[in-house]
Amino acid sequence: MRTNRSDADVAPHVLREYALVADGERGALIGPRGDLAWMCAPLWGSEPVFSTLLGGPGIYLVAPDTPRFVWGGYYEDGSLIWRSRWVDTGIIECREALAMPADRHTAVILRRIVALDGPARLRVLLRAQPDEGRVSSPSRAPDDSWHIRAGPLHLRWSGASTAVRSRAGMEMHLDVPQGHTHDLVLEISDRPLVDIPPTPDELWDRTEHAWATAVAPIQGTLADRDARHATAVLTGLTSSSGGMVAAATTSLPERAEQGRNYDYRYCWIRDQCYAGQAAALYDPHPLLDASVRFVGERLLADGSKLKPAYTTDGGDVPSQSTAELPGYPGGSVVVGNWVNHQFQLDTFGEALLLFAAAARHDGLESSSWRAVETAAAAIEARWREPDAGIWELDTRRWTHSTLTCAAGLRAVAVFAPHAQRDRWLDLAETLVDHARHRCTHPSGRWQRAPDDERVDAALLLSAIRGAIPATDPLSRRTLDAVRTTLGSDGYVYRFRHDDRPLAEAEGAFLLCGFLMALADHQQGNRFEAVRWFERNRAACGPPALFTEEFDVIERQLRGNLPQAFVHALLLETARRLAQPWDSTT
Fold first, then answer.
1. Cα(512)–Cα(179) distance, rounded to whole angstroms?
2. Which strand (E) or helix (H) includes residue 74?
3. Is the pTM of the predicted complex or chain greater than 0.85?
4. What is the end-to-end Cα distance of the chain in Å, rounded?
5. Closest CA to 208 of 19, 77, 44
6. What local confidence, expressed as pLDDT, does residue 6 receive?
7. Once rounded to an integer, what is the mean pLDDT over residues 458-473?
């Protein structure tokens, strides 16, 4: 038996070729050649057990046993059940998922191989290798499953009775006759696995039912299938705690060799609010409920000291440090995020916008209203302080932060008792007046900060979210400035870094492309709005997953995958652009 074919078995692919399977508590990236290349267990922020994406040793490979094959794949509608599809001398599919409903302690990886056209011969390789702790010798149980101890984790592998130990890991060659299937089930737990596992059929039935319950059909948007897929992605990134991680990965570089590598396996309050507001457009929705619960709990716990991001269980994000893995090409590996020391004023405004969206569906309980009052009080107490802003840069009096708080206060005041309503509306007016006085550019548009005259695409949100009317000259001139200064060939950049062409400084920011679509739609520019929408929703690979940035020159994804807030804005834009603008939603 061959144990070492080539480094191509574990070499990283371009990001557009990876698919995500996830169950809310953790996720895994699967490459086009059947390589499960990234997964942390038991939870999002845990150590990786599979890590070839970043140059580590851990991998779970299921692929045709030949170097000569081409690949494809697709998601089953409304789910993160992925079907890898390979064509060599025949056609093979591998149906892949993380079993649902999820258990916080145990991940269950389902892989069902189907020989569609002709017999299939596959190579299967399992090499579990956490960063910390030794890996025990595999032992076979009476039911022919393999048991492995990998550091603090317990693994049980079923369906691999013919696997043998090799220098590469646990390996086997698998023959599947035409029209037949073969199931592989891998359980990874932080507890000993002693119970008899359900059958593969039972696991698949439960998983299918969980997805069908969580992701309802969508109709009447500008892109129904894409909107439903975005809902599935956001669902897969959302824990039972309600916390939604910003992405499944860490350290995928935004720009090669520039140190722009970050750990996004945590829950950003702002991103969570974007997702909740988007879900609110689809009637009462589990994603809206999850967002309100998680954000409300964090506000009640931390008050005016609300952090920009948390772990899925509401804990502190660890401080940033480096890891020993080689990293994705062009980047080094970091764990943790320095955002844990930042103050971001706009998160309080985004929280109020989220709560207002829930209130429109009668979705605010008494505890949520206490969180509303907490956020409003925090704005009143801290709005004069400089903050890190939406782009998490140096501390300044960012215009976007001030106006987002004004928008949140206006939105939630509609549902407040008379005294609170007047107080919050007065405060919102104070914030807008302050911004007008200090942050209006001589050309009549918003500028980024009192001491920064540049255009910033985030300032489109001031009209979209209702800080000021869309008819205000400031709104229209800001839109025109973003279009002419930051827009290029259907894409939008955050701001101009320097005198270089936009695409040389960073990738197009997909969030900003969808904001442009919303802003043009709000102004009645339907043709332009649809053009922005269509251009940006195509900035992905075959699995239709988005990163934060899109490299327009190379047509490649840049940054961590998948980026939740981009999927959230696609979900919102697909709905809003399908009907006349409604400022009350």
1. 47
2. strand 70-75
3. yes
4. 62
5. 77
6. 43
7. 98
